[in-house]
Amino acid sequence: MDTTMLFSQGGVRQPLLSVVIGIRNWGLDRLEIAIRSHLQSSIHDIEIVISDYGSDNKQEIQAVAHKYKCKYIYTEAKIWSRSAALNLGIREASSENILTTDADIIFSPRAHEILLTHLAIMPNSVQIIQCRDLPEGFGADNLAHLDWEQLFQVSSIRPRWGMGGSATFTRALFSRLHGFEERMTVWGGEDTDFVQRARRSGSLFNWVEDPEARIYHIWHPPDSRGTSPAGTKIVQQNRQILQEDRTIVRNLGQSYRGASSFVPTVSIVITTKDRPTLLRESVASCLSQTFQDFELIVVDDGSSDYLKPALDEFADDRIRLLHLERSRGISFARNAANRIARGEFIALHDDSDLMLPHRLEHQLGAVIDDCAGSYGGWIDFDDETGALTPQPGRTTFDRPSLMFTRTLVPGSVLIRRQVLGFYRYNESFLANPDYHLFNRIARGGVRLCHCGHYVILRRSHSHHLTGTDSVTPGLTVAVSKAMDRGSISVELEQQYKTAAKATQEATIPFTELVDAAQHLPPRLTAKRARIELDAPLTARSGQFQALGTILSASHCLHLEFATGPAKGIKAVTIPEEPSRNIDDIVSRLSTLGMIKQISQLTLPLAYPDVPTLEADVTRAGSREESHFAVNGEIEHLLGVLEKHCSHCGLIANGDFGFTLALPPLQPSVRALVHAKLRRFLTASHGQGGA
Amino acid sequence: MVKEELDLQIETVFDPSKQITTIRCVPDNYDAFPPASIAWLDGRIIEHNKDRAAAAQALLLLPYVSGRLSPIQGCGVEIAGSLRDLFLPRKIILDHVELKPARIPSGTRTVHLCDGSYRSAALLRARRHDVMLRLSESAYTTAISPRQAVISSNFGLFARRDGQLHAILPLIAAALLYAEDLSLARFLVPVQDLTAEERQLFARVTALLAAVNVAVEAPFLQVELPALSKFLPEPAALEMFFFERHEHTSAPEDLPDFWIAILLRARANGDTKTMVAASERLQVLGQAGHQFSQREHCFIQAHLREAGVAKVCLCDKNLAEDSNQ
Questions:
Q1: Which residues 412-441 of A have a C-beta within 8 angstroms of B?
Q2: Architecture of the domain delimited by A14-244
Q3: Mean pLDDT across B126-146
Q4: What is the DSSP pairing of strand B97-98 with strand B75-76?
Q5: What is the pLDDT of residue A5?
């Protein structure tokens, strides 16, 4: 048996196999017999982990565990979940090789050894032994001595429904799938679900057929699962997940860190050079992920200052720094990182970009069927004003799409490490090597899918790449494209163009953009208070005139107009500044009408309110507002604006009236509004005037 | 083309319009899903033999098959046993076996299957060959000339990379598909250090290829590493060899295989200074995540000890992480 490949190379001695048993209120006698069968194994280097998921007889089970030197974990729980019990047990297990089973399954002496031999030959697999059921009379009371020949004679073979009571696999596979599905409660289906996901992720499913490897189910009265209405519902729910959920990685809100042999599910890889300030922001965004089972590899591509102190500030043992003394370019640095990565997936990330908090959760949750990873939309942000340009990306990842559209940015990609172990960055390309890499990956037939969300904030600034001149990136892409297109016929190129045109841009709700703005660096944002009114304020009853008074006191207001026949002002947004008393403004507004809701927003400096942001991003880059110096006739001015604009901004200029900021308008509307504004303009009106 | 009701169904498609040869597979109950559903070779293969195609498919998809194998074009009874045995200890049901005798092609030429390793560099001079064949994932088109074939393909993506034989199986599969067109009779395989499991697999691969009239020879198999020294070319030629065959790298000095070759040559020549430099360099590369076989590992460690390196550690485990690259 050659098992060396399954051992960690670390210094801590690990058992050859961890047997993990999930249990809750089960017979102690069965448990003892099961443990004894494991201890009689032909291999002696076995660790047994008993994961007790809320048993009433905790102390008795603990005593049994102590008696047989098993590791014991207890979890308070009201409802039995075999999945959760096994996951918690595996988290505490020390070995790279895991065998999950039940407290009523006994193993023949050579079963463990044969399972491990098979696993060593096929590390990327789940190994199963077909279970044999012992008849009535072969319960716990009659199994003080295990006569294997007799057990074989009296038992009956169980059909290959489900998994037969055990599964043997590596910890790496557990990390890739991120555990048994914990939405499946009680028991039933979780083993099969685990194996189906394992298969889709590239692991085969092998039924061990060896007469010396046998497992037996100890007879006991059947449980009540499935007979009560509640039980039937659970069975149905579990079955529904099994049949309908096509994802591979599960339990994204859980963390299984903590074990000595923890394997991260994801390796986040950042390459950097001489940008410690940007790197700090970038690393902080990674550590704030909702999914936490990752490692973070920072490759320092020959920075002049040592980066370690900057990273030590985070005091997070998931951060690993690889320092290259001599800069070799981004391709070399990324290949170096991928080589030392331990995660089953690699999340590519740039040192100037910011991860949105749900990035890993969204992208892992989007890896379906046999996809090798996922990517998402990205939002470019101006590093001076915070102005946002959303880029949803394309939903199709294939060669035509990559060749003729902007499908993705590499910093939004999460991909299996196995793929990047084969497809490497070309180190001759000192900058922008990603087009070449992802084109080859797409050409190789590897599938990536769009996760349907924005996943990063991408900084727009003059030096986007580490240590390169500005000519190289364009040159790299040009050379890559020439090689790519030169290898296909003109006819095929035309077909690719047509196919690329047919690909869809991803549709991502606008609300994600507003949410993303909350995660910009604080220096690029300002806080706003949005006061929504129960009924729109109108020119009637002097409400507009009163608003003018409030404006004079508050300096700056952004007004949203109601649509539909009613018109009027439905919400007012006020910048939050130390010098401004928001409570006072709210109090004044409340005298004009009932306040429905007050919400606090963080918006980029470039936008006074959400409608302006929306108007900006939906107009594909037309960011210019029109600003006008207007006189104090607020009541009439608002009467004009409510008819033609969705919103506007007003800034009080003391004795000189106000500055009016208008959003981008359709050309015809713009001309009409500008004409109507003439009567309000003062001599010193600003840019963009009529 | 794809019939989902069949079990792991594999089919080699020779598509003249696109000048591409593809192997499609549809996994069933126990099979793993490969990293891509289609394996392809750029270029047309003219002569098709169903036994060789079935053997090539099995070699390529070895890490993914469990339960049943259904080569669509079928295979002869002569290779059925070897095909089933290839998957041991997995027990495979083989479909579409034909009892009717069929022609088994034969060739005359010896091909060197080049995996870009130092072993391959040594094999160039250790054994005469008629043609050298290698796979390339980054070449956009296949180039075949009388002495050399560079096959543009994604076959390598399907390989396990945890052993010299596992890593080279896609190359053997590709060579098998081209065997009749290129009149190949003998495969020279540059493996040297195989695990116990791989040695058994090598015997089964040899038996399978023998059943389709192809001989397999691994001249360095289980030979001690220093024995390769006398076949390795000069450093300048080594640089050229590695540079041409590792398209992603910009400097052969970044490759562990280059430094193992240098170390072997220096050892043979008694060049202590170069031996120390090479073994230290290999230590750094090991810490940077490059993998070594068991024998390579021992060989390098022994030289590090000889060189007086206080702490011998070839693997990155926790944080290495100052690298002199």
A1: 416, 418-419, 421-428, 440
A2: Alpha-Beta Complex (3.90)
A3: 95
A4: parallel
A5: 27
Q: Is B80 within the bounds of a domain?
A: yes
| Nearest-neighbour CA in chain A from B69: distance (Å) | 13
What residue ranges in A140-257 does DSSP mark as E strands? 156-157, 166-170, 204-208, 215-217
Residue B53 lies in a domain: yes
Residues 6+ apart with CB under 8 A from A594: A533, A534, A535
Strand partners, A86: none
Digit-coded pLDDT (tens) for A309-341: 989 999 999 999 999 988 999 999 999 999 999
Q: How many domains does chain B have?
A: 3
Q: Say if A14-244 and A266-513 have the same CATH topology.
A: yes
Tell me the C-alpha distance between B131 and B145, whole Å: 9
Q: Among A564-578, A630-644, B171-185, which range has the highest average pLDDT? A: B171-185
Query: Using one digit for the tens of pLDDT, what is the confidence trace for B157-192?
Result: 999 999 999 999 999 999 999 999 999 999 999 999
Question: Which overall architecture, per CATH, does domain A266-513 show?
Answer: Alpha-Beta Complex (3.90)
Higher pLDDT, A510 or A617: A510
Confidence of residue A473 (pLDDT cuts 50, 70, 90): low
Delimit the domains of chain A by residue range: 14-244, 266-513, 522-680
Residues 457-496 of A with CB under 8 A from B: 483-484, 486-487
Q: Is there a contact between A381 and A387 (Cβ–Cβ < 8 Å)?
A: yes
Q: pLDDT band for position A278 (50/70/90)? A: very high
Gap from A422 CA to chain B (nearest CA, Å): 6
- Of B158, B148, B156, the residue nearest B178 (C-alpha): B148
Whether the CB of A317 is below 8 Å from some CB of chain B: the reply is no
Q: Does A340 touch chain B (CB under 8 A)?
A: yes
Instruction: Say how many C-beta atoms besides its own lie within 10 A of residue A44's C-beta.
Output: 10
Question: Is A445's CB within 8 Å of B40's CB?
Answer: yes
- Tell me which chain B residue has its CA closest to the CA of residue A372: B35
Instruction: Write the burial class of residue A73 (CB in 10 Å: 0-12 exposed, 13-18 middle, 19+ buried).
Output: middle
Query: A202 to chain B: which residues are within 8 Å by CB?
Result: 32-35, 64
What residues of chain A, 344 to 373, have a C-beta less than 8 Å from chain B? 369-370, 372
Partners of B34 on chain A (C-beta within 8 Å) are 202, 370
- Mean of per-residue pLDDT scores for chain A: 88
Of A321, A322, A370, the CB nearest to B33: A370
Q: How far apart are CA A78 and CA A470, in angstroms?
A: 61
Measured distance CA(A278)–CA(A381) in Å, rounded: 14
- Alpha-carbon gap: B245 to the closest alpha carbon of chain A (Å): 13
User: Residue A578: is the preceding peptide bond cis (ω within 30°)?
Assistant: no
Q: Phi first, then psi: give them for residue A452, nearest 5 degrees.
A: 80, 15
Packed helices A229-244 and A190-200: angle between N→C axes, nearest 10 degrees:
0
Q: Which of residues 121-180 of A touch B (CB under 8 A)?
A: 121-125
For residue B20, the chain A residue with the least C-alpha distance is A488
**In chain A, what residues touch B162 (CB-CB under 8 Å)?**
5, 123
Q: Please, are residues A182 and A256 in contact by the beta-carbon 8 Å criterion?
A: no
Distance in angstroms (rounded) separating the CA atoms of residues A49 and A90: 8
User: With helix as H, strand as E and coil as C, how does B156-219 read?
Assistant: HHHCCCCCHHHHHHHHHHHHHHHCCCCCEEEEECCCCCCCHHHHHHHHHHHHHHHHCCCEEECC
**Shortest CA distance from A299: residue in chain B:** B321
A14 has a chain B CB within 8 A of its CB: no
Q: Return the residue in A96, A422, A437, A483 with the most chain B beta carbons within 10 A, the one to mutate for interface testing.
A: A422
* Rounded-to-integer distance, Cα A499 and Cα A246, Å: 26
ipTM here: 0.92
| Closest among A458, A399, A461, A448 to A420, alpha carbons compared | A448
Q: What is the mean pLDDT of residues B311-321?
A: 50
